[in-house]
């Protein structure tokens, strides 16, 4: 099923490294979690450098969220494939070149059916087809950005750093509890729409378990977390989660780089 991401203009190998390896292993750790490694005009971590533009990011971030999948189907996969090769996550040059070729070929397949065929056969004008294509991606980009950002870039979540030896204070499961938030825990409809990602905590704790079991796992995880004095963050609904993300963007735009003990 993971390979089907190629059919919507992305790349399965880049996604595996970005999401499964980096994000799930180093959640909310500056310079390691690629989900919070933002361009210079966005700041998603209190440990990231701050500049004057960030003061307004709570106003303009939403527009760039809408452009995120446009970036994904054009430049993002190429940039990250090269980055992961330099990081050593891709073992050799032959594998890198093969990955690059696959990205190009799959993107050609995607553009062929998602853009070229509608232009040639739909009967709509060029401008209308391109506008529909861009609108599709803007809605998709905004939606998936809000789902992921509302689970990690909120005031409840932690943004820990390693010590001088490069070790984290918490072990893996405690780290996931500290850096992840659920939202809309009682909404079956929203859970179905986003593939169980309303239960982000369970998604991070049990990545090999089907999301259809998250709802039953959640009360057990919450009780166990409280039993051992560990956090279990959740927001009542999606709107409250988005509101917390908005406030976090505002705070991050005004927050100076903190002094972190190592």
Structural summary, described in words:
The structure is a single chain. This protein has 262 residues and is mostly helical. The protein has one domain. It has 10 helices and 2 strands. It has a two-stranded parallel ribbon with strand order 1-2. Helix 5 crosses helix 10. The termini are far apart. The C terminus is likely disordered. This is Linoleoyl-CoA desaturase. It comes from Cyclobacterium amurskyense. One of its GO terms (biological process) is lipid biosynthetic process. Pfam families: FA_desaturase. InterPro entries: FA_desaturase_dom, Fatty_acid_desaturase.
pLDDT averaged over residues? 94
Bin the helical content. Answer: 55-70%
DSSP strand (E) fraction? under 5%
Shape: globular
Strand and helix order:
HHHHHHEHHHEH
The secondary-structure class comes to mainly alpha
State the total count of DSSP E strands: 2
Radius of gyration: 20 Å
Number of helical elements: 10
- Low-confidence stretches are 257-262
Q: Termini, distance in Å? A: 41 Å
Number of domains: 1
Largest sheet properties: 2 strands, parallel
Q: How would you write the strand order of the largest sheet? A: 1-2
GO molecular function: oxidoreductase activity, acting on paired donors, with oxidation of a pair of donors resulting in the reduction of molecular oxygen to two molecules of water
Transmembrane segments: 59-79, 100-120, 126-148
Protein name: Linoleoyl-CoA desaturase
InterPro entries: FA_desaturase_dom, Fatty_acid_desaturase
């Amino acid at each position: 099923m993971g390979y089907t991401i190629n059919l919507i203009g992305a790349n399965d190998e880049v996604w595996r490294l970005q999401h499964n390896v980096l994000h799930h292993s180093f959640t909310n750790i500056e310079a390691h979690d690629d989900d919070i490694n933002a361009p210079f005009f966005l700041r998603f971590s209190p440990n990231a450098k701050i500049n004057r533009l960030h003061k307004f990011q709570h106003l303009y971030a939403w527009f760039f969220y809408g452009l995120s999948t446009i970036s994904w189907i054009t430049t993002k996969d190429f940039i990250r494939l090269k980055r992961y090769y330099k990081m050593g996550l891709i073992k050799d040059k032959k594998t890198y070149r093969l990955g690059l070729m696959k990205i190009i070929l799959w993107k050609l397949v995607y553009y062929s059916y998602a853009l070229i065929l509608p232009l040639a056969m739909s009967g709509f004008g060029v401008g209308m087809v391109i506008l529909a294509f861009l609108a599709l991606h803007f809605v998709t980009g905004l939606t998936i950005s809000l789902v992921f950002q509302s689970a990690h870039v909120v005031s409840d979540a932690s943004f820990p750093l390693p010590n001088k030896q490069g070790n984290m204070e918490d072990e893996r499961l405690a780290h996931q509890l500290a850096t992840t938030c659920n939202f809309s825990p009682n909404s079956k409809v929203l859970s179905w729409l986003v593939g169980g990602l309303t239960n982000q905590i369970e998604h991070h704790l049990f990545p090999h378990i089907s999301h259809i079991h998250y709802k039953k796992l959640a009360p057990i995880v919450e009780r166990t977390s409280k039993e051992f004095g560990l956090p279990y963050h959740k927001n009542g609904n999606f709107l409250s989660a988005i509101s917390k993300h908005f406030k976090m963007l505002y705070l991050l735009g005004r927050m100076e780089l903190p002094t972190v003990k190592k």
